[in-house]
Amino acid sequence: MTRISRRARRILLAGGCLALASATASAEDFDPRHGDVKALVNEVSAQGVDRAWLERAMDEATFSQQVLDAMSGAAEYHLTWHEYRDIFLGEERIAKGVRFIDQHQDAFERAQHDYQVPPEIIAAILGVETRYGEVTGDHRVLDSLSTLAFHHGSRGGFFRGELAAFLEIAYEQGVEPGELEGSYAGAMGYPQFIPTSYRAYAVDFNGDGARNLWTDPVDAIGSVGNYFAEHRWQGDSPIYLDAEGPAEPPASIEFNQAQKPYVSVSKLRDAGITPEDALSPETRVIPLALELADGHYRYRLGLDNFYVITRYNHSYLYAMAVTELAEAIAEARGEPTNWFESMATESEERP
Question: Residue 116 above 70 pLDDT?
Fold first, then answer.
């Protein structure tokens, strides 16, 4: 496996977001008695969260310049496909994915039965996000979300909603908000759900009465499956198909958009891009042009399930890394990847 460059590592670690407004924080920035923080406390307490508990939590929150720096850093950089792929497709991560499925086989089988999502897909999400729960973040979620909610110049409103959801979750589950750690953007646990996703899609998959994504791999497996099902994952349908195309991506086609399939096969054919498997000319796909280390491009056509993966992270690079890691795990397990091959079979059998 090719070693990734320092530049690639710097890009990945920096995260990605918009520029931030400069801010100087004081010790009283998150005082629950004042201004916007008081308004947040009022809002969350109206949802049934104890006001005194909320005030104690916000009084404990600490401003983090490190969080703001991390959020702004990656706007200057761009990863190519081969750089991004090399980060996530190492032999160790593949082997750990195989072991993780073996260790939690019952949970993966139930998730596939209940949500129609193959074990390798769920495992690949957890593998890309946190190395199967090994690296879940070392920022206090309370500090990250408070900092972003009240000091992010362009997305403060979004993070204010995440902070409110986080406080509600912590209160409902009886955990101290200051003890929970996650990413600099407030993503949490094995699957790195942001709080609103946690509230909407987390499930109690082991039946112990709690939805615990921080330390319970079984709940995480079920919750990722539920997330995909709620975003209309289509059973054993494939994620993408390979295609042939010119040396350079044609300018007439907009590639690599994390959108619902938006370009017809007939339009792609007109531009010189031909699916390797038979598809109706009216079929819409997500055209992907993946830059390789030697400067050449690999063409693929993302289908509806590829779009579902981009709902987890709105990046074609992320979705393709998850897909290839899942394929590699399935190959290492000796399992057929019907979710990759079935479209070709269906197309060939279609009258």
Answer: yes
